[in-house]
Amino acid sequence: MLTSCAKKDDALTKGIAITHNDFESVLGWNGNTDGSVTTERAHSGKYALAVGPQAEYSYTYSSILGKMSTAKIRTITLSAWVWVPSDQVPGSLVLAIAHSPERSTPVFYGDISLAKEVKKFKEWQQVSRTFTLPDSIQDTNQLKCYLWRAGNSENVYADDIALRIEN
Question: Highest taxon of the source (predicted)?
Answer without folding.
Answer: Bacteria
